[in-house]
Input
Amino acid sequence: MASLAGGAVARAFETNAVEFPDRHIELRTAPELWLKRLILGGFEKIFEIGPCFRNEGTVWSVRMEHPLKLFPGLDKTHNPEFTTCEFYAAYNSLEDLMATSEQLFSDICKRSQSLISERFASLPPCDIKSDAPYQRLDFIPELESTMGLKLPDLKSRSAEAEVLEIFRKRSIRFPSPPRLPRLLDRLSSEYLEPRCTNPTWIMHHPECLSPLSKSFISRTTNQVVAARAELFIKGKEVVNTYEEENSPFEQRRKFEEQVQYRDDENRTEIDESYIEALEWGLPPTGGWGCGIDRLAMLLSGTDRINDVLPFGNLRNVVSLGKGGGGKKTAPEPPQLIRKQPC
Output
């Protein structure tokens, strides 16, 4: 809990404490900013496996005047309460982080297949082609090549309007509100993510999609991009990793730009406490995050997050509580919990 939940573009759950009745308190949306404070304090490597909470509702998409319910906040692959693993390592570059990920996932997939064949035969085989190196897709060049259109200068004032024009030309439903980060993320989900059946990196995202990562000017596109990579398997994001922004001046600028994109889901604020911490000197640091629930789904061959949650998703949990009011429904039984032969 904290007075300001940071580290992710997401709405936080709000609560209160008897000890501090007049203070605003939020449940964390990510452990990132706290773990990086530990790097600032002298730890060279730090990790945590723990819960996060994101109070995400329905995201609507619109095509001209016709609304469409496109991204529900609670669906078969998303739950507001989830478990994540994050680590931070001083002096790790993006290439270091990607190499570590590939070795880790190669080992995990092989071990999972061994366990499935020996002890959990009722589960489908782990058919992920996990041998390194993984395919890489450079965000902007690959997107332009697939669309057959050039993106505008994404730092220009007209960038948002010009990207909206691409949506109209390609008859793509666009998110509401149609702000630049949401538009670019939508283009990625439309054109890049479906190509990631086998383990694939989507890397060097536009800077506006990665406010906590270092950025640079791409020699290929002359656009400002992030030193970031996301690992997708079977069309789903599994890992998010990047070189951390360690300049307090650049971090303030990026926070200020994110505030311009605020909406009901993105309630970004300038975290003055974190900027002050950066002034003490964060070494070059690599950060890495993986959703444990999503990983369990991937390895067990299920497409429903309910199947890897002991008590189901948020809808099931609130229905089980006494005095919750409203119609109570029994949770869907997880399909993966089966008796194994002795």
